[in-house]
Amino acid sequence: MSDHFTRPSDAGLSRYGWTESLDHAFAEHRDAGLVPARIARVDRGLCDAITGTGPVRAALAVPHASDPISMPCAGDWAALCPGREPRLVALLPRHSTIVRSSASRTSHGQVLAANVDTVVIAVSLAAPLDPARLERLLAIAWESGAQPLIVLTKADLATDADAVREEAGELAPGVDVLVTSVTTGQNVDVLTALLGGTTVLLGSSGAGKSSLGNALLGDERLATGEVRAQDGKGRHTTVRRELVPLPGGGVLIDTPGLRGISLYDAGDGLEQVFAEIEDLAGRCRFGDCAHDTEPGCAVQAAIQAGELPERRLASYRKLLRENAWAAARTDARVRGERTEHQKAITRHLRATYRFRDRQS
Question: How does it assemble (predicted)?
């Protein structure tokens, strides 16, 4: 069920996406005296959250999890204990999560946003298109469970916007590509009409995400900055993820520019991005074809015929290796945590036995 729910105490949450299904999921928390809230921003153990009666600043009392993916982030629906010192004590199940490998290069994942319906991938037309980076962002977007939308920004600075739009479309089967300019207003109204529910902005520093967000909000609410002329990159003017309501309905989550973004358990997303290679692979003579020199390889045949760029296959292989490496590291960490847990139990039992021996 997706229609907005209008329980009087939660009426203020309807514009933030509160639904009848969420209300059902919240029932046990309401019985415990808690109130629903949506997290707008998380900052050093505190969060800004929206409740049915307005915004609050609350402490994060959610039990600590060994995996950061389980920690609260912008877009989460939560159960909040009201009072003079509000506390966020539980999270509702997420229907989508945008996850990358931790920027610290650990085996953990990092959630960029939760409960997202549309992922707007902002790509600046003021710089050459980076196909590999776009494919990487698309894999993360598809893996999340949300719908990607490529928005080419800064059309007023482009030399050939149509050519870039065509190239981006070839890299993103099943994804709409929209050319925009906040300076001239080109297609900003079209983008506004396309968005609904919860939208997150992803892209590199300098891609124009915050400027695009301000155009959608109709207000200079999000910080923007200058871009270096030599490489088209910008500084991180957005320093944390933040959820804000859109004037026409729905909400927007702005994110810091992503200079480095690694895959985390994105197998399904990769299959979606490289759907044509997956389809060709199914036609190979051998089921375990490596697409190199095997006879009857449909993938290599497509490359030889000019139907599939060799760069595309190389990018697919690179991202598959990266994803497999991240999965292997995660498996090793989980095994290590289980081993440490078992060791802790053993230490506790030994201490208990020693105590009993001293008492006897």
Answer: Monomer. Associates with 30S ribosomal subunit, binds 16S rRNA.
User: Taking the C-alpha atoms of 319, 324, 329 and 335 in order, what is their torsion angle to the nearest 10 degrees?
Assistant: 160
Q: Is there a binding annotation on residue 341?
A: no
Question: Could you tell me the sign of the dihedral formed by the alpha carbons of 131, 260, 271, 95, in that order?
Answer: negative
Q: Which two tokens stand for residue 6?
A: 């209008």
**CATH of span 8-91:** 2.40.50.140
Q: Is 73 annotated among the ligand-binding residues?
A: no
Q: What's the mean per-residue pLDDT of the chain? A: 84
| SS3 of 94-142 | CCCEEEEECCCCCCCEEEEEECCCEEEEEEECCCCCCHHHHHHHHHHHH
* Alpha carbon distance 82, 56 (integer Å): 9
Residue 81 marked in a binding site: no
Q: For domain 97-254, which CATH number applies: 3.30.450.20, 3.40.50.300, 3.40.50.2300, 3.40.50.720?
A: 3.40.50.300
Ligand-binding annotation for 262, yes or no, is no
Does 154 appear as a known binding residue? yes
156 is in an annotated binding site: yes
184, 213 contact by CB (below 8 A) = no
**Residue 359 buriedness (CB in 10 A; 0-12 / 13-18 / 19+):** exposed
Tell me how far apart the terminal alpha carbons of the chain are, to the nearest angstrom: 63
Domain boundaries, the chain: 8-91, 97-254
211 is in an annotated binding site: yes
Q: Is 209 annotated as a binding residue?
A: yes
Q: Is 210 annotated as a binding residue?
A: yes
185 is in an annotated binding site: no
126 among the known binding-site residues?
no
- Read off the pLDDT of residues 240-278 as tens digits, 9 standing for 90 and up: 678 999 998 899 998 876 666 788 888 999 999 999 999
Q: How far apart are CA 23 and CA 52, in angstroms?
A: 12
pLDDT of 252 reads 95
* 162 annotated as ligand-binding: no
DSSP 286-334: STT--SSS-TT-HHHHHHHTTSS-HHHHHHHHHHHHHHHHHHHHHHHHH
Is 176 annotated among the ligand-binding residues? no
Which one is predicted more confidently, 48 or 335? Answer: 48
